[in-house]
Amino acid sequence: MPYEGFSLELAQPPPPDKPLAEMTPEEQGEKGAEVIIGAMQSCPGKAAISGVMGFGLGGVFGLFMASMSYDTPMHSPLQQPGKLIYDLPFKEQLKVAWKDMYTRAWSSAKNFGYIGLIYAGVECCIESTRGKSDHWNGLSAGCLTGGGLAYKSGPQAAALGCASFAAFSAAIDMYMNSENGRPPKNDFEQ
């Protein structure tokens, strides 16, 4: 028999939910994992996770970009207007630089987090509504997110935001799905 140990019997339905106090520690762990996974797979959960991850990534990106801006003399209007940062004492230079880096990192983190939250929420809602998971969800979510973020600047900006976010979303989807092609014929095929 080729499938030794294989049974065609239907799996038993899970036992009815017991109160938490009557569960074994293993059952409590499984129940807790189910609740966490269910929350992470919901649209609000996906949006929150994307927002938090975008916030962290944006903070790191903003901090990096702010640290790269000190290759030219910088004016310090916060301390003494009209004076270059290099003319200030070392402690003042550090104070101005850290404050500037914090401000840029915070601003970038908020923007990335907001965009991640909106995009993931919109994409999840579109996927739930359509009942399909394909590239159109990302394109639509990109268009709605980009257009929604730029709508205050007028219809042309909203259209440009829609097109650019949709194109960026399509490029990311193509890159992420590029590994889903056919397997190589042999070990030497690239």
Automatic annotation (TrEMBL):
<keyword id="KW-0813">Transport</keyword>
<comment type="subunit">
    <text>Component of the TIM22 complex.</text>
</comment>
<keyword id="KW-0496">Mitochondrion</keyword>
<keyword id="KW-0812">Transmembrane</keyword>
<dbReference type="GO" id="GO:0042721">
    <property type="term" value="C:TIM22 mitochondrial import inner membrane insertion complex"/>
</dbReference>
<protein>
    <recommendedName>
        <fullName>Mitochondrial import inner membrane translocase subunit TIM22</fullName>
    </recommendedName>
</protein>
<feature type="region of interest" description="Disordered">
    <location>
        <begin position="1"/>
        <end position="28"/>
    </location>
</feature>
<comment type="similarity">
    <text>Belongs to the Tim17/Tim22/Tim23 family.</text>
</comment>
<keyword id="KW-0472">Membrane</keyword>
<keyword id="KW-1133">Transmembrane helix</keyword>
<keyword id="KW-0811">Translocation</keyword>
<dbReference type="GO" id="GO:0030943">
    <property type="term" value="F:mitochondrion targeting sequence binding"/>
</dbReference>
<dbReference type="GO" id="GO:0008320">
    <property type="term" value="F:protein transmembrane transporter activity"/>
</dbReference>
<feature type="transmembrane region" description="Helical">
    <location>
        <begin position="47"/>
        <end position="66"/>
    </location>
</feature>
<dbReference type="InterPro" id="IPR039175">
    <property type="entry name" value="TIM22"/>
</dbReference>
<comment type="function">
    <text>Essential core component of the TIM22 complex, a complex that mediates the import and insertion of multi-pass transmembrane proteins into the mitochondrial inner membrane. In the TIM22 complex, it constitutes the voltage-activated and signal-gated channel. Forms a twin-pore translocase that uses the membrane potential as external driving force in 2 voltage-dependent steps.</text>
</comment>
<dbReference type="GO" id="GO:0005198">
    <property type="term" value="F:structural molecule activity"/>
</dbReference>
<keyword id="KW-0653">Protein transport</keyword>
<dbReference type="Pfam" id="PF02466">
    <property type="entry name" value="Tim17"/>
</dbReference>
<keyword id="KW-0999">Mitochondrion inner membrane</keyword>
<dbReference type="GO" id="GO:0045039">
    <property type="term" value="P:protein insertion into mitochondrial inner membrane"/>
</dbReference>
